[in-house]
Structures are given as C-alpha cells and as structure tokens.
Amino acid sequence: MAIAENLQEVRCEIAELTQRFERQPESVRLLAVSKTKPVADLLAAYAAGQRLFGENYVQEAVDKCQQLSSLADIEWHFIGPIQSNKSRQIAETMAWVHTIDRDKIARRLSEQRPADMPPLNVLIQVNVSGEESKSGIALESLDSMVKLVSELPNLRLRGLMAIPAPQENEAAQIQVYAPLKQAFETLQQHYPEVDTLSIGMSGDLAAAIASGSTMVRVGTAIFGARDYA
C-alpha cells in the first residue's frame, strides 16, 4: 500500500478545493486518522511529511504515543468519545482533544493535565444534525460550554468540531454546516485563540472547506480500509 502516494493525492485534493473556494492552501490542516492502523503505517506517513495523527481509542492512542515518543514533532489528536475513567490517560499524552461535550470531562482533563505540559488544546463537539445517536452538544448549549472551557486553567479552547449526518449532495452538506460556521465566526470575535474548525472527512471535504474548515480528518483515503481486531 503506497501511503506516501495516497497522502499526496489527499493533499492535492485539499489544494484544489481551497483554490476552488478562494482560500489559502495552508489554511486547511490535514489530520491523518490512524485508528486501528499499525505503527508501521504511521511511520510511513511520517516519512512522507505527515505530522498530525488522530486516534479514537484511548489505550491504542497511548501505546502509539509511547512507541513513537522519539518523534518529538508528532502532534497527537484524540478524536473519539471520552469515558471518565480514561480521561487521565488522555490528559497525560495528547496535544489535542476534539470531543469535549460534557462539563465533567472538561473539568477532569484540566485537573489531570500534568503541570509540566502545556495546556491541552480542545475543541467543543457540536451535534449539528440533531441526531440522538451522535455525541456533541446542541448549538443552543454552546455558550455555557465555551464559558466553562475558557475558564479552566489547563485547557486552551481552540474551536469547534462536528460530524454531521450524511447528506444527498454538496449543497445540502453546506446548508447543514452553515449554523456551525456562523457560531465559529462569532466565537472568534470573542476569543482570539479560537482558530480551528474541525469538519470534513472523505465524504464531505468540499462542503467542509467551503464552510470554513481549518482541519479535515481523513483516514481510509490515506491508510486504506479500516482494520478490525
């Protein structure tokens, strides 16, 4: 499997989309979703210049972080649901967390962040499609969560994340993202450190980039089909 070639194709697609929507190419960062993939695959992506890696499962993320600890410039992002009893491991290893949607988890991550590490970069997950099965808070609850996170000493609020329901076409996807885009832009006006809108995966890259995404999460197009235990 040619991970380097896959990465280049994804980067080219992002570049083409930023040009199409009149955005700067460097305004969209690529997060390689490496869940269930072996360390050898991550090393292949690293050799091809990839530095941001996203993991969904706590123990797997911690193990990979330890195995690749000699690569100081890897940036680890946790993008899965967080259980209270796993929050300490995340706080002690990750650079970013994309899935803050509960007060309790936010407080625990701040309390458990080691004093010798910089504040944990966090994104608040928003349920833009209103699906009961999806994690994330309603946009109506965003203000209170933002206030909490911004006041926690060991967290650094960087922005918002969402995983919308699939839509029929690009226009419908953009419509779903519109309220989130507006919320993000409003947030930026009040919090100077907010700079990250984590939306967009393989199926909706165009809509996400059109809607102001600054970070897209791509897995299969880079590493191939998901590996199951």
TrEMBL record:
The keyword Transcription does not apply. Keywords: Pyridoxal phosphate. GO terms for molecular function: pyridoxal phosphate binding. The modification N6-(pyridoxal phosphate)lysine is found at K35. The keyword Magnesium does not apply. InterPro entries: Ala_racemase_N, PLP-binding_barrel, PyrdxlP_homeostasis. Residues 7-226 form the Alanine racemase N-terminal domain. It comes from the Bacteria. Its cofactor is pyridoxal 5'-phosphate. Belongs to the pyridoxal phosphate-binding protein YggS/PROSC family. Pyridoxal 5'-phosphate (PLP)-binding protein, which is involved in PLP homeostasis. PANTHER family: PROLINE SYNTHETASE CO-TRANSCRIBED BACTERIAL HOMOLOG PROTEIN (PTHR10146), PYRIDOXAL PHOSPHATE HOMEOSTASIS PROTEIN (PTHR10146:SF14). This is Pyridoxal phosphate homeostasis protein. The lineage of its organism: Bacteria, Pseudomonadati, Pseudomonadota, Gammaproteobacteria, Oceanospirillales.
